[in-house]
Specification:
Strand content: 25-35%
CATH superfamily of one domain: SH3 Domains
Structural class: mainly beta
Organism: Oscillatoria acuminata PCC 6304
CATH topology of one domain: SH3 type barrels
CATH architecture of one domain: Roll
CATH class of one domain: Mainly Beta
Protein name: SH3 domain-containing protein
Radius of gyration: 25 Å
Number of strands: 16
Number of helices: 1
Helix content: 10-25%
Order of helices and strands: HEEEEEEEEEEEEEEEE
Distance between the termini: 84 Å
């Protein structure tokens, strides 16, 4: 009788564990929603696709007017040799397309059925030495020094850095279509690393530097 009890106790415990484990495995993990990378070509003549952001290089493809393209997940606008803003795409062919001169209306729009993202408040990186979170700053009004992150070409939002360099300290972020306020005596500063972009100093939502290539005048 005692021998029977010794064998039944481990079996009972094992039965409970067997029932509980599938429930833990079946619990899905929450994942962040990926940015919308679909864009529609608005240029009436269509767009040429080049291997690099340089119109003098060989054309490797083309996109018809009103056709869709897919931005690269790490897409960041760059200034080409022609002074225009170029953006990397992965479809219909991988390469670069022109989005027009800086501060222009651009050559892209959101795809049909794709909602233009509203500017949510970004979560700053946890660091007790960084400045106040973006969510605690007042709304930036329209004006001479107001600029907006161009969500058409920077769907992942824009990083705010401590200096005019990509590897410099990350201070916070501005979402696609979010706003920043330039300092009053602002100037465009070329990237010291030779990258085809310029930087500008801002005072809101927090003080720091952002890439000029991703900004347009506030709408």
């Amino acid at each position: 009788m005692n021998l029977l009890n010794l064998w039944t106790i481990p079996i009972a415990i094992l039965s409970v564990m067997t029932i509980a484990i599938p429930k833990a495995i079946a619990t899905p993990l929450a994942q962040a929603e990926p940015p919308d990378l679909c864009r529609r070509v608005t240029e009436r003549r269509g767009l040429a696709v080049h291997r690099t952001p340089d119109p003098s290089q060989t054309q490797i493809g083309g996109v018809d007017p009103n056709a869709n393209v897919t931005l690269a997940a790490d897409a960041e606008p760059v200034v080409g040799s022609d002074g225009r803003i170029w953006i990397k795409i992965t479809a219909p062919v991988e390469g670069y397309i022109s989005n027009g001169p800086p501060n222009s209306g651009g050559n892209l729009a959101y795809c049909s059925g794709s909602a233009r993202p509203s500017p949510p408040t970004p979560a700053p990186q946890p660091n007790p030495t960084t400045q106040a979170p973006v969510s605690e700053t007042p709304e930036i009004p329209n004006g001479q020094f107001c600029r907006q992150v161009n969500g058409l070409v920077t769907p992942q939002g824009l990083a705010i850095r401590s200096a005019v360099s990509g590897p410099s300290q990350y201070l916070g972020g501005v979402p696609a279509n979010g706003r920043v306020q330039l300092i009053e005596d602002y100037e465009y500063i070329p990237d010291p690393g030779g990258i085809q972009r310029s930087w500008v100093e801002i005072e809101a939502p927090i003080k720091g530097f952002v890439s000029v290539n991703s900004l347009i005048r506030c709408l």
